[in-house]
Structures are given as structure tokens and as C-alpha cells.
Amino acid sequence: TSCNYNAPGTYYAKVIVERGGLARQDQVVITVTGPTPTRIATCGGYGTTPSTVTVGQSFAAQVLMTNTGTLGWTSGGSTPYRLGSQNAQDNTRWGFNRQELPSSPINPGQLATFNFTATAPTTAGTYSFDWEMLQEGVTWFGNGRCTKTITVNAAVGTMAGRIYKDDDGDKTWDVGEKIILDQNLNNDTPY
What we know:
mainly beta; three-stranded antiparallel β-sheet
């Protein structure tokens, strides 16, 4: 006789064996296991996140992650699921290194849209804006992380009210002239 156990668990069966007019009865323990639960996240892109910002600028960012595993993501408890910064792991380049789930739970097959405000670094350059899912205190996981490069441009300003010279004295700016500011500019003495 065969039995069909559809769900993982522990089952007890009574087995009766007859042989030579004698019957013997035993209890058998049957353990049925299912597939190993998986934590998998697939990057769905960056939605409305800009590719270019200005130094120190706050901007709206969006990261899309789809739960392609078999476990739901939850925000509660001692090991919540979160979006975490990468490249380098746990960096605070954009003002923080974690984002809470937008709702809970995020079940298998569901899309999580993380909307947040980030702040650009204070030095112009090209930076990684990389994110990956994690379960705090357990593991980082995914089918590859979400990766994006953001160019951070120097600030552009207009002089108003005074004429300034640079530290070397080889450049002056007139009122209303457009200039590019960087972190090394320190001209507050009028000439």
C-alpha cells in the first residue's frame, strides 16, 4: 500500500505484517521534508532615481526589489528584512545604510518599492549607488545587487553683490558671473 503525504511534517503510520499466519503490528514514523526555504531578491531597477545630482543635494531615490524566494520578508522581530547599502557594504555615502520595508510582509512574487530621500556626497565625482536585501543578523541575499552609478557634479553659483579674487590673485569674478564652486573655494574677502 502506498500513501501520499503532500505537506512537510512528521507522520505516524500503523504497519501490520502478516507472515505464516502470524500478524505483527508496528508504528512507523515518516518524516516528509519539502524544498529548502530560500531568500532571493531580484533587482527591478531604480525607477525615478536620477543619474546626475549636485554635491550635497537631497534627492528622491527609488529602488525596486522583487521577492523571488520562497520566504516572506517581514519588518518585525529581532531579524527584520531591510534594504542595505553595498560597494562598500554598510557605507553611509548617501546619508544612511539601511531602509525599512515599504510594507510587511512582502510575500514571494511581490515587488517592494523603496522610496527614500538620499543626500549626495560633498565631493564631486562618480559614485556607486548599490543596494541589496538582507535579513538583519542572518544574511545578505539576492540574485545580484541593484547597481547604479550616479555622477555628482560640483555646484554652480552666481556671484552677487561683490567682486572676489581667488587665493592666488589670478582670477576675479564680477557680479552676476557664473562660477563653479568646489569644496576648495574659500573666498570671502572682497577686493
